[in-house]
Amino acid sequence: MKVTVDSRAPGSAQADLLAVPVAADEVKRTRLAARIAAIDRAVGGGIATAVATGDFNGKAGQQVLVYPDRKRKMKRVLLIGLGDAKSIDDEKLRTLAGTAVSRAGKSKTSRLALVVPPFGAGDDPEAAQPLAEGATLAAYRFDAYQTADEDGDGAVSALTLLVPRGQNLRATRDAAKRGVAIAESQNVARDLSNEPPNVLSPEGLAAAARKVGREVGLKVKVFGVPELEKRKMNAILAVGGGSVRPPRLVTMEYKPKGKAKGVKPVCIVGKGITFDSGGISIKPSAGMDEMKHDMAGAATVVGLMRAVALLELPIPVVGVIGAAENLPSGTAYRPGDILRAASGKTIEVLNTDAEGRVVLADALHHARTEYKPRAIVDLATLTGACMVALGRWGTGLFSNHAGLSEALRSAGEKTGEIAWPMPLFDDHKTEIKSEVADIKNTGGRQAGASTAAAFLWHFVGETPWAHLDIAGTGWTSGRSPSYQPRGATGVGVRMLVEWLQNGDLEALD
Ligand code: BES
Ligand code: MN
Ligand code: ZN
Fold first, then answer.
1. What is the CATH number of domain 183-508?
2. Measured from the CB, is residue 16 less than 6 Å from ligand 1?
3. Do residues 124 and 159 make contact, with C-beta atoms less than 8 angstroms apart?
């Protein structure tokens, strides 16, 4: 979808659908606010009628479609209720654009114009970023495997953001461009995560990382089995051992041009289990298909690295992916096995379904020792326990560094990707001590998300580190918010771009 910015009067916009967000106090009783009255004159009075009949009162979430007569420039006008004008923040702008794009798709319209609300967070050129994000995310479809459907929704091809005359158009266009780059990168992550597990193997995931790297100029390295053996990455080898499609470790390196010589990078590590059957500790069959998304963390890493390169961030960033397929077979790892991870620590396997942390043991160790990063952030669909705790509404946030934790939480709040601080007690670390090895890969039934995080903690040393458990937020079964269709979410791309771009990284050194 192409996003453009224009400062012409909404009434003269040539569009299949003109979306007009209206705050509640702009349509109090039957008196329309001046800006709404002006639009109403250009569409022939339909807005006043919608308000006079009581069909529209600007309440948040309300949608009313008005049809101007044939002489008008626009074919349809969609009134969208905003509720309280002062409550407009970036996330409301995202959902506003998502609502407009979804409704336009239902009408199979291709040219959409959206009036940017001139209050709250809308009253700023920067508003174009969340608006472009919401629109681009809402237009996403995963339909590569479906025969074209006559009854399906159409695809909006062009969106024009209509801003007040006098607003800085260049700044607005820059913000819109950034929003499109970020959201398209999030869509790349969604695509990878939605891809079925027969198509996307560990090598397939590595190939996708290579392709993205080629497109945006990243240095991508892929370790196959011989290299993993040479580096003694027995943890990732064990998890991948049950599949005929062998594991991979992928790194994606971004260096800003010219600048930042000698600056330590930030490492973003992703769990890339392309399918998690549970292995020998096999999962129940109901819902097992969803375990194709068990590489959502890795998908976010690929999408994020794409965005980092396109936005030309001024700091070095490295993505690290541990990719494996967790299957039961004659060569699979077993409960009872003791593995020596690349770091030298030994892991007692008690449950082969706790495979994500085992793969991450080697990926985190590689990030730490190879890149000596100023910080490591990992993303993983790690535990059902985290999903129970926070549902689909929040990502679990665990860390050994209070400042890093707060910076990520705040970036998530700004970008509509809630990450909520979860505890990592010394007792959680004690809980996973093994009687026959250094640590074991499961704790008891209690605090499962925290004991999983405590396992990861063993492999990051002193490096400031945060772990994002995206088990509940990596994919969704309903359409909510408006810009999120069913399936993969690509969660974390927006939050981490925000943190890398505007967070105080020096505070970590
Ligand atoms: N990939 C799963 C976690 C998961 C479950 C994510 C459901 C999203 C939805 C992970 O590999 C797993 O199986 N974890 C186990 C750990 C347990 C065996 C200690 C779990 O959470 O049940
Ligand atoms: Mn598992
Ligand atoms: Zn898993």
1. 3.40.630.10
2. no
3. no
**Substitution candidate for ligand 1 out of 239, 290, 353, 379 with most atoms within 8 A of CB:** 353
- Tell me whether strands 475-476 and 487-488 are parallel, antiparallel or unpaired: antiparallel
| Active site annotation includes 283 | yes
**Per-residue pLDDT tens digits for 405-458:** 999 999 999 999 999 999 999 999 999 999 999 999 999 999 999 999 999 999
d(CA 407, CA 216): 27
Residue ranges covered by each domain of the chain: 2-145+158-164, 183-508
357 is catalytic: yes
Q: What is the structure's pLDDT at 479?
A: 85
- 465-483: pLDDT as tens digits: 999 999 999 999 988 999 9
Query: What dotted CATH number matches 2-145+158-164?
Result: 3.40.220.10
Q: Summarize pLDDT for 266-313 with one digit per residue, the tens.
A: 999 999 999 999 999 999 999 999 999 999 999 999 999 999 999 999
Cα→Cα distances 302→46, 144, 297, 320, 388, Å:
47, 20, 9, 9, 27
